[in-house]
């Protein structure tokens, strides 16, 4: 416990900077996730109008 407290002012400032960077990174990932999910849904909805399935039916593999 003493080592945690003995960081001094430099340790406190470094801790705050690391914490702030972590929060900004977390928000960035959340925004990126929302953007990617929305873009994927728009892509699927838009291109499903032009899709023509011409393949063969799926047959299950049996053991």
Automatic annotation (TrEMBL):
User: Which Enzyme Commission numbers does its entry carry?
Assistant: 3.6.3.15
Coiled-coil regions, chain positions: none
Note whether Transmembrane helix occurs among the keywords: yes
Q: Which cellular compartments is it found in?
A: Membrane
Single annotated GO MF: proton-transporting ATPase activity, rotational mechanism
The organism's superkingdom is given as: Bacteria
One GO biological process term is: vacuolar acidification
Give the residue spans that cross the bilayer. 12-36
- Keyword field: Hydrolase, Ion transport, Membrane, Transmembrane, Transmembrane helix, Transport
Could you state one GO cellular component term attached to this entry?
vacuolar proton-transporting V-type ATPase complex
Task: Name the membrane topology term.
Answer: Multi-pass membrane protein
**Could you tell me which PANTHER family the record lists for this protein?**
V-TYPE PROTON ATPASE SUBUNIT A (PTHR11629:SF63), VACUOLAR PROTON ATPASES (PTHR11629)
Listed name of the protein = V-type sodium ATP synthase subunit I
Species name: Fusobacterium vincentii ATCC 49256
């Amino acid at each position: 416990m003493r080592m945690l407290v003995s960081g001094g002012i430099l340790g406190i400032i470094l801790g705050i900077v690391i914490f702030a960077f972590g929060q900004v990174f977390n928000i960035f990932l959340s925004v990126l996730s929302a953007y990617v999910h929305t873009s994927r849904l728009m892509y699927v909805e838009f291109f499903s109008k032009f899709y023509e399935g011409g393949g063969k039916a799926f047959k299950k593999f049996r053991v």
